[in-house]
Amino acid sequence: MSDKKFPLVSVCIPVYNSQRWIKQTVESALNQTYDNIEIIMVDDGSTDKSWQILEEFKNFFPDKIKIFKQENKGACAARNKALRESKGDYIQWLDADDLLEKDKIEKQLKAINFVQRTDILLSGSFAKFKGILE
């Protein structure tokens, strides 16, 4: 846990055979306008190069990124592992093929502060990308 003014946000990402998308996904989390985040990724037994990509990110951002590897148990088991390893005051769930808008976390934290409640769930808008990742 961190101070109330700048709470820690844990971005939890289950990863399975996501080498095609994971770089852009992690970059969207790293490039947030709100900086007090940790990124926790759990590789769920990928057979592609996902784990190697996660290791590269971990080497470049050792204070920001935590990575874990497990045998294939499914996305729910990977999410649960990420949640257990998280230290954040808030959780940002993110799939390995999703992108965050650069100010998404900052906007949601401002919304939480506005309503002065901790028993709420906030969500953002959703958009599909076609033809970008061929």
Please give a structural write-up.
By secondary structure, this protein is of the alpha/beta class. It has a single domain, classed as Spore Coat Polysaccharide Biosynthesis Protein SpsA, Chain A (Alpha-Beta Complex), CATH 3.90.550. 32% of the residues lie in helices and 19% in strands. It contains 4 helices and 4 strands, in the order E-H-E-H-E-H-E-H. The relative contact order is 0.23.
**Can you tell me the CATH architecture?**
Alpha-Beta Complex
The average pLDDT score comes to: 89
Secondary structure category = alpha/beta
Major beta-sheet overview: 4 strands, parallel
| Uncertain regions spanning at least 5 consecutive residues | none
Share in helix: 25-40%
CATH topology: Spore Coat Polysaccharide Biosynthesis Protein SpsA, Chain A
Termini distance? 40 Å
Beta-strand percentage range: 15-25%
- Strand order, main sheet: write it out: 3-2-1-4
* CATH homologous superfamily annotation: Spore Coat Polysaccharide Biosynthesis Protein SpsA, Chain A
CATH secondary-structure class: Alpha Beta
Q: Over the alpha carbons, how many angstroms does the gyration radius reach? A: 15 Å
Based on DSSP secondary structure assignment, what is the total number of beta strands? 4
H-E order: EHEHEHEH
Number of individual domains = 1
Q: Please, how many helices?
A: 4
Dominant shape: globular
From the structure above, extract its key features.
single chain; 4 helices; 4 strands; Spore Coat Polysaccharide Biosynthesis Protein SpsA, Chain A; four-stranded parallel β-sheet; alpha/beta
